[in-house]
Amino acid sequence: MSRIGVFVCHCGENIARTVDCAKVAETLKDHPGVAVAEDYKYMCSDPGQALVKKAIEENNLTGVVIAACSPHMHEKTFRRAADQAGLNKFMCEMANIREHCSWIHEDKDEATAKAIDIGRTIIEKVKHNKPLDVIKIPVTKRAMVIGGGIAGIQAALDIADGGHEVILVEKEASIGGHMSQLSETFPTLDCSQCILTPRMVEAYQHPNIKLHTWSEVEKVDGYIGNFEVTVRKKARSVNQDLCNGCGDCFGVCPSKKIPSEFEAGLGTRTAIYVPFPQAVPNQPVLDRVNCTLFKGRRKGLAKDACGKCKEACLKGAIDYDTEDEFVTEEVGAIVIATGFKLYDIGKDQPEGLKGYGEYGYGEVPDVIDGLQFERLASASGPTAGAILRPSDGTEPKTVVFVHCVGSRDPEKGMSYCSKICCMYNAKHAMLYKHKVHDGRAIAFYMDIRAAGKGYDEFSRRAIEEDHAEYIRGRVSRIFRDGDKVKVWGFDTLSGEQVVIDADMVVLATAVRPNDGVKELAQKLSVSVDTDGFINEAHPKLRPVETNTAGVFVAGACQSPRDIPDAVAMASATSAKVLGLFSSDELEREPAVAIVNEQTCIGCMRCELVCPYGAIEQREVCTVDGHVCGHTAYVNPGVCQGCGTCQAVCLSKSVELQTFTDEQIFSEINALCAWE
Amino acid sequence: MTDAHTDFEPRITAFVCNWCTYTGADLAGTSRLHMASNVRIIRLPCTGRIDPLFIIKAFERGADGVIVSGCHPADCHYTSGNYHARRRFAVFHDIMEFVGVDPRRMTFSWVSASEGAKWKDVVDEAVANVRELGPYDAYRALAPDAQEPWPAATEGLAPAGEEVAS
User: Fold this and answer.
1) pLDDT reading at B2 higher than 60
2) In what order do the strands lie in the sheet containing B39-44?
């Protein structure tokens, strides 16, 4: 027998606009087992919660149903309130009449009837809820940060400064990420390397930070507080304990024409290389795909075709026979900071995208993307900071910058705004004008989105002080015309066609999530959105958490972000991680399966389907100690509460607490007994 | 579509997982995607939790159609619950067809947390399909007592005194 309280929330107008909340409360008041039913404007507010607490105390309620928003929104809030009023918090459930009712229906009668049904279902469920105790689990106070760009470095430093060990995993040979490739940063125009490299060194030397470069996450097991991550340390062919970073090896490497990833293809590197001089760690890796020796081995040559780097290495650090190593790290929290890549808009589009073949990228050498311009403008770049066009090394006198290539274009590209392009285009125009005083910088833009501290002033400066010419409109075609690059565009303010004979074109291509993020997300059981960015737990209130407890997200892998945003987000994740590490034990919901040993027949079908290996076989003994049978046992520390075991149990002996058969059948009974 | 069913409002029960489809349905709400109001959702931790008996029970209790929806393959919050569900329903679906339940009354789909629009499509399509098929009364004809009018099927209110166990 129950005494249930039903509390119907108006959510301002959000629910009350299409659901007659008073009628819902009135109808449900007559539902068997309901002692009290009330409606209120904002149930989650302080007076709203007070109303719930008071009702629990005054009516000696055995269960509470809050008919309001999604349980993902406020279940915790109301369970806490119930707890404070002395009711076991697992006796409180949410009936979702906002997301699943008032927001998706227009007809008030229909929506009200549906809200009543939803309320009845949850009332019937709550009747079969049982008071439960939270489960306490220990916390491993070590964190893993995946991705060593500025966001990953910042998160690692903050957690390490908080006194906890951090494992920083980076798939490239050096940490630093895209920020290390940038020339100068907006809106201050300070040198990117000058502010980044001290951070990289600090991370490398920090006593609490352990660095795995040239490494990737292979496998993730466990759960919040108790993850076990297997890291694949890709064969580097260089012993990091012996190498002193002298660089003798790459001096003698005969393969010198390999396009450099760091220089965005504008420069070359050797097969054994460090990506850039300030690399951290300053130790090379051997690119086995392009190495002469390994090419020979793949062809099956009896004798190694090269070996110069090994001869040159006085420390004896080079070993051609190393293989991928697997390291298992136990951590309590994981931060994803895998960053972004630029939309490669060339003709070949592997992912079913359409590309922008009409812009000639990849075919006309003087059509480059934003990252390539960064390398041209960088003092450490292939031209030592001189703006010279890739085709013939001359100084371009007219440069066209095209905004929004692949961004804000649902037809062909990405529907979202890439956020950083308006600012870096303004920066590029300024950098160009500062170096080529008699040159023309012409930008085609859709809108100038310069929201941020000092940002609008910065983009105005590009126009007003540095005389960048901004044309509002789109570009239809870019093609080679003699030694010029012809740009056909349209000025939407004057309504005229614009044709420009440019020397170089810089395309601000869309920011996309990095390669491999989807696979990583699957390993971590977090979701990605339709564009492939990592989903946050709540777009406003839980922006750095993911749907998997203990896994956090920072930087441009969550959505396009600039440096200050990425750094802020990284510090936010570290606050979350440090908060998690502040107690020795975690509380977890008791949504675990329990075996009834009286009825279990020991068939162990449950063990076969359990994704976590939480189920084991136990012996049943007679009073005099003879084994007379077996039953299943669920380890509550390992069980995650999916309930798959219960669905396959032949004797109905295993039961998932919070989602028992009794509860679900009651819900079905309630739902289908419609008038 | 036969004209006889145009004024019939289908009753559809949806069994969805907490992490993908329930959240996807939440997203449909936050995106204000209007859809048919015939579907009632029952939240479960995972599609792997769904016992085929739930579906039979729903039909017994008067549902005209059923939706089962969870995470996409490889995206299961619990790693593999949706695979177990997929196998189970491949078999269950055939059994239901064998015993004479039109398979169009049962929709099995994957809706992720980012697919609010897909959830709307699943709902609207299931409602349209069932509307075309008309009410499902074969089961109820066999077991006329199975559907009792609300609220006789449940217990009453406990007294407010101290004897209430909680």
Assistant:
1) no
2) B39-44, B12-17, B65-70, B106-110
Token pair 């031209």 is at which residue? A383
Q: How far is A669 from chain B (nearest CA, A)?
A: 6
So what CATH class is A4-133?
alpha beta
Instruction: To the nearest 10°, report the CA torsion of A207, A208, A214, A220.
Output: 160
- Tell me which residue in B34, B37, B151 faces A114 most closely, judged by beta carbons: B37
Q: Taking chain A (675 residues) in consecutive chunks of 10 residues, what is each chunk's mean pLDDT? A: 94 95 95 94 96 95 96 94 96 96 96 95 95 92 97 98 97 96 95 95 97 96 91 96 93 94 95 94 95 94 92 95 96 97 82 86 94 95 94 96 95 93 97 96 96 96 96 96 96 96 97 95 88 89 89 97 97 97 90 93 92 88 89 87 93 93 92 55
pLDDT at site B60: 84
Residue B75 has its nearest CB partner, among A96, A522, A672, at A522
Q: What is the pLDDT of residue A137?
A: 86
Question: Considering only CB atoms, which chain B residues are within 8 Å of A667?
Answer: 42
Please give the pLDDT value at position A611: 84
3-state secondary structure A598-615: CCCCCCCHHHHHCCCCCE
Compute the distance between CA of residue A502 and CA of residue A484 in angstroms, rounded to an integer.
6
Interface test with A, best of B31, B34, B61 (most A CBs within 10 A): B61
First to last CA, chain A: 25
A584-588: long-range contacts (C-beta < 8 A, 24 or more apart)? A584/A138, A584/A139, A585/A136, A585/A137, A585/A138, A585/A139, A586/A136, A586/A137, A586/A138, A586/A139, A586/A224, A586/A225, A587/A134, A587/A135, A587/A136, A588/A134, A588/A135, A588/A136, A588/A137, A588/A224
State which fold the A142-234+324-339+514-580 domain adopts: FAD/NAD(P)-binding domain (3.50.50)
CA gap A599, A246 in Å, rounded: 70
SS3 string, A497-517, reads EEEEEECEEEEEECEEECCCH
Residue A446: the pLDDT is 95
DSSP tag of B149: P
* Residues A498 and A477 sit within 8 Å (Cβ to Cβ): no
pTM: 0.77
Q: Look up the ipTM and state it.
A: 0.90
Residue bearing tokens 């009632």? B40
Min Cα distance B117 → chain A (Å) is 11
- Report how far residue A171's alpha carbon sits from residue A182's, in angstroms, rounded to the nearest whole number: 19
* DSSP secondary structure string for all residues of A563-610: HHHHHHHHHHHHHHHHHHTTSSEEEE----EEE-TTT-----HHHHH-
User: Are A254 and A291 spatial neighbours (Cβ–Cβ below 8 Å)?
Assistant: no
- Decide: helix, strand or coil at residue B30: helix
Give me the phi and psi of A16, to 5 degrees please.
-65, -20
Token pair for A28:
């449900």
Residues from chain B contacting residue A101 (CB–CB below 8 Å): 37
Q: Nearest CA to A569 among A586, A557, A587, A584?
A: A557
Q: Quick one: DSSP state of residue A550?
A: T
Q: Are strands B65-70 and B12-17 parallel, antiparallel or unpaired?
A: parallel
Express each pLDDT in B74-131 by its tens digit: 788 887 899 999 999 999 999 999 988 999 999 999 999 889 999 999 999 999 999 9
Domain range summary for chain A, segments of one domain joined by +: 4-133, 142-234+324-339+514-580, 248-312, 341-512, 593-656
**CATH code for the domain in which residue B97 is found:** 3.40.50
Q: Confirm or reject CATH 3.30.70.20 for domain A593-656, answering yes or no.
A: yes
Return the closest-CA partner of residue A439 out of A467, A458, A473: A467
- Chain B residues lying within 8 Å of A608, measured CB to CB: none
